[in-house]
Amino acid sequence: MKFTCKKNILQESIYIAQKAVTGKTTMPILGGILIKAVNNQLILTGSDTDLSIITKIPVDVEEEGEIVVDAKIFGEIIRKLPNDLIEITTIDNNSIEILCQKSRFTLVCMNPDDFPPISNISENIIFSIPQKILKNMIKSTIFATSQEETRPILTGVLFEVKNSKLNMVALDGYRLALKSQNINTENTISAVIPGKTLNEVSKILEDKDENVNITFTSNHILFNFNNTKIISRLLEGDFIRYNSIIPEEYNLKVIAKREKMLECVERASLMGSDGNTSLVKLDIKDNSMVITSNSQLGMVREELNIILQGQSLEIAFNSKYIIDLLKIMEEEEVIMEFSSSVSPCVVKNKEIDNCTYLVLPVRLLK
Amino acid sequence: MKFTCKKNILQESIYIAQKAVTGKTTMPILGGILIKAVNNQLILTGSDTDLSIITKIPVDVEEEGEIVVDAKIFGEIIRKLPNDLIEITTIDNNSIEILCQKSRFTLVCMNPDDFPPISNISENIIFSIPQKILKNMIKSTIFATSQEETRPILTGVLFEVKNSKLNMVALDGYRLALKSQNINTENTISAVIPGKTLNEVSKILEDKDENVNITFTSNHILFNFNNTKIISRLLEGDFIRYNSIIPEEYNLKVIAKREKMLECVERASLMGSDGNTSLVKLDIKDNSMVITSNSQLGMVREELNIILQGQSLEIAFNSKYIIDLLKIMEEEEVIMEFSSSVSPCVVKNKEIDNCTYLVLPVRLLK
Description:
Two copies of one chain form a homodimer. Chain A contains six helices and 26 strands. Chain A is α+β, with helices and mostly antiparallel strands.
């Protein structure tokens, strides 16, 4: 194998392939990137067997071949080299030489035959979606996935395609996030993608209008964009019927300035000494929301002007859940719909009807 | 106690006093800041008993008094409040009320009588030095202090004042850093300041020409600048006679481009799998420095153009020590003086003769 390519292009492609490489493995081959030089292309593959990323860049191939290099050290070497042409040559079956200006590295390699096989998926596109929209939909839902492995299905995000619409849904038993987008497809599908996969996908997606093509098989999803293919196993099992959880009716509706409310709840949450589980009480009446919290550290009282439609209500929440969703939302004003102090609260954007958040209240001891 | 002040001024003063507050203490009072409102001033004091910081800001005092608040939560509350006037009032002996716009906090406090007493130092200034120069001198030496407690004196930096000159010296048994500055004083003094103190002092010092006044007692140092006093215990014991360690003669002298050499050594150090202790070999001859390193991961060879005066030499170093000092130095070119492959290497700036670094080589097995 022998090829020449520009440092910054190689560095970027390693960055992408590396996203599927797990640092924590006892199998050295899974810490590696498979590099294949063929047809004046360099194909880099990283895989932890559940998630695989394959990315291609144009290079000058003088001699075809393939090899596996340790992702971390290879990435570090390329990153630290001057921004110039890099020449890489295999010098025997288990090492390569990396040349750039006056730098010369000899790096021990691994056998490509030991690299895990990548599922061969015939690309049968189910739908396409602009990169920046998918990136935003992942951000808007992934925070609500469960971090606990007790119910594995909840660590993923549901992709539900029907009636020319993509619904992405995550829920963890305390809250739910649903984001929707019209797409151009006749297909119907329902699959749950691991949160870890979507986390890596969103780091590789760019804020641009170019499409991502998405293909499903019975147990894999394939994202194809920018000369990069990302293949991930799906989570097995049925997702919760989320529609039945979202209440359709409400007794009172609040319109609040999102950033102001976020600041108030963040301050109120300071009274929780353990940060994550601070309880905040909302007292809603007369176009005002009074937010209070107290602990052995002291007390806090915040007051927010709102528009209230309906009767008054006292309700309490875990502050983290309210903060998370107010941070993720982007509009200036949010709508909150309440039924009672023990029923879930539904939060939506005021202007654009493309997301629904739901938070369970904490029952107050009277 | 009752006073009013601007949020950003209060926030800045908490940031300063907090630098002396240790997070890791079993005594809650040491996690606190003493707040004293008197004569239209607010005096904030933080102390871990070894290091104390006292800072003053002008405020509107309506009622004088003092109280101790938990530094972390008080700092967080002030930081999150809107940028407006804040009113703070004691509501009884063990709590204060914090008011800002529509936010109202009640915060539990501690008894000021329990706060550790601060050494009263009569200010008898030994020398004054511009803030930005002291900040730079700390940065240029502190990295060479020992991180091990086996010889406590080496965890500090020697301040040696004599012949109208301040020498700051740190050494850890493998390397030495000496930075000098002419100062206007007739005094002679020699004292060792804890590295931890200097670390906090350098965070508070600003990049400006205003002076820091420095006072010594037999076991304390006082830094006085910007309405802030920093009092620290000195380290006890005699510092190593550093002058006898620095060789005055050499057999060969190298002039090298600092950044180029730094990049070469950083790349060469990548071959050390455990990062910190990678061994790099320097082969110096014919106006060229060849830097090599190898491990079970592979090999690297770097070549650097230099100006060489004297004979050729092969010598090896722990890459971390070379990287640390080339990063700290600021000039374009450095001078390196060598005597033999087992003698310390002396590194200096080419243009300005105000620093001397020394690194011990690693003996190579032949």
